[in-house]
Specification:
alpha+beta, seven-stranded mixed β-sheet, 26 strands
């Protein structure tokens, strides 16, 4: 049953005014740089004691700008400025409410869910208050009555997971700062310096400050708190990514490969935090970005030597997903998340030589999978400590983890008391678990794909099998999770890329290995912008 509820056309605005990623007819100057907005502190003000210290570099001064009654206020100081939250009591309680259509572990799965809701006529937005969520768009479903009518229509169609998240706020956080003994407060604050470098200390400990290039904006987010956003040029942003994603001592070709895919990933994913008016986060939900403290000559050189280079497929920027360790084989996109497969993201045995014939011995077969996962030698990652692992977990701990996960999902099965059996019921060709079925005292349910990693603490990936353990007792003690890899396993392996570089492979060859059929191109007019499926359909109308 499709839900048509004030249906209107929806289009994700992915603004690629990025070095010729538009349909501009003028030549592109490759010395230009794209400016990104990175949420380096995503939820400032969650606790009343939150503090941030902003400090200029030696010999520089901070310039703080904000608006009061449409008049710009500016203060300049050479001293550190501490931003702190103060809880303001409201004259009367305020209702903050959204219709949550789903909770998800990753943006990729949330985006697919959003696509499905749009196909039913519901306008949505993707949020990340903690876990990723899909919300009914607040500006469309803007009154309590409209939200409840929407939820009733959804329930009537047989979809029972959506719910109302209603909070009654008696206090809200405000940000204030003090300069020369005078206190100021505003919801929006811009901080710049003449040297375009600012130190930010997110903790109480001195010496923990991080150096960021560009400027900072403090701004409200969708959750009633604030985000500190770093506006930084793309190539400078990469200087704060590579040292933390692959390290500074990796072989040159692997550093170059990482630079190309980190640049590609950033440009492909600028839509992630549209709800909060920035583009990317600074942790593993995007790419780890920790400022310029860790910048090194090796990583800077890799960035400079690949300046402007991105990975493309049919002249379109690719979804340059990557992970720490694949466990010996990469995966289809759909092995981990719901959504359309990408032709360049498919299973590749992660070895320099042909040690396993996937076409003849698919890892969807349980016997083949166990044989594969017990192989140790000959892979690009064989010497890495998380290439293979065996995690034994008691049934009590498994139960607690699963109950907690189901409560977050608001699943009716969260009330179960005992687990009677766990079984892997479907694998993909790459060996990733697609369906894991659990029998409890109140019924049987199935976990799918990437949510399996959220449900249990033990597995480092979905590339594993289960071994029941008794440990000398007549009853089930627990399970051993026996598997390989760290992370989702889609696209490039950072560990594997380093091994291939040591074998003499070039960055181009490494990227062609992990993303078959792709090409490296310099940003320019011939590169098409990335469009979502809904945007492609709109263009065809």
């Amino acid at each position: 049953m499709k839900i048509f509820f004030w249906r209107s056309a929806y289009k994700i605005v992915t603004t690629f005014c990025l070095l010729g990623l538009t349909a501009a007819s003028t030549p592109v100057n490759n010395n230009q740089d794209v400016e990104l907005k990175i949420g380096i502190v995503q939820r400032f003000g969650v606790t009343p004691t939150d503090k941030l210290q902003i400090t200029p570099t030696k010999g520089d001064r901070l310039q703080l700008k904000w608006q009061v009654d449409n008049q710009q206020q500016t203060l300049i100081t050479a001293n550190p400025v501490q931003l702190e939250t103060v809880m303001e009591t409201l004259p009367q309680p305020k209702v903050q409410e959204v219709v949550v259509l789903g909770d998800f572990r990753t943006f990729e799965t949330a985006e697919d869910s959003a696509r499905n809701w749009r196909s039913q006529g519901i306008e949505v937005e993707i949020a990340q208050p903690e876990r990723w969520q899909v919300w009914a768009k607040r500006e469309v479903y803007s009154s309590p009555l409209v939200r409840r009518l929407l939820l009733e229509s959804i329930k009537a169609s047989g979809q029972n997971l959506p719910y109302l998240d209603t909070q009654i706020l008696k206090q809200i956080p405000r940000v204030r700062w003090e300069i020369n003994g005078k206190r100021y407060s505003n919801n929006y604050l811009e901080i710049v310096t003449s040297k375009n470098q600012i130190r930010v200390n997110k903790s109480e400990k001195t010496g923990n400050s991080r150096l960021y290039a560009g400027k900072l904006n403090l701004q409200p987010n969708a959750y009633g708190t604030y985000s500190l956003v770093n506006q930084v040029p793309l190539e400078t942003y990469l200087r704060g990514v590579l040292p933390y994603e692959i390290g500074t001592r990796a072989p040159t070709a692997s550093l170059e490969a990482q630079a190309i895919i980190a640049r590609t990933y950033a440009l492909r994913n600028v839509r992630r935090f549209a709800i909060d008016n920035y583009q990317l986060c600074a942790d593993t939900h995007c790419q780890v970005y920790d400022g310029l403290n860790g910048a090194a000559q090796t990583t800077d050189q890799a960035i400079a030597s690949t300046r402007g280079m991105v990975l493309t497929y049919n002249n379109e920027i690719v979804d340059a997903l990557y992970s720490s360790t694949t466990g010996g084989i990469t995966a289809f996109f759909s092995d981990v998340w719901n959504g359309e497969d990408r032709p360049y993201l498919r299973p590749v045995v992660d070895a320099a030589t042909n040690i396993w014939n996937l076409s003849q011995k698919s890892l969807a077969d349980e016997n083949n999978f166990r044989q594969f996962i017990n192989l140790q030698q000959g892979f690009n990652e064989s010497t890495w400590n998380v290439f293979r692992w065996n995690k034994q977990t008691s049934i009590e701990d498994i139960t607690k983890d699963l109950q907690k996960f189901l409560r977050v999902k608001k699943s009716p099965y969260s009330k179960f008391k005992t687990i009677e059996a766990i079984a892997i019921t479907k694998r993909s060709e790459s060996g990733r678990i697609l369906d894991l079925t659990i029998k409890t005292n109140i019924g049987v349910f199935t976990l799918h794909k990437d949510e399996i990693r959220s449900a249990f603490a033990a597995p480092l990936s979905t590339l594993f099998y289960l071994q029941p353990l008794n440990k000398g007792t007549p009853t089930l003690w627990g399970y051993a999770f026996i598997g390989g890899g760290l992370g989702h396993g889609v696209g490039l392996s950072q560990t594997g890329a380093q091994n291939l570089a040591k074998l003499g492979w070039s960055s181009a060859k490494i990227l062609q290995f992990y993303y078959p059929g792709t090409e490296i191109k310099v940003l320019g007019n011939e590169i098409k912008p990335f469009l979502t499926s809904s945007e492609r359909k709109t263009e065809l109308r």
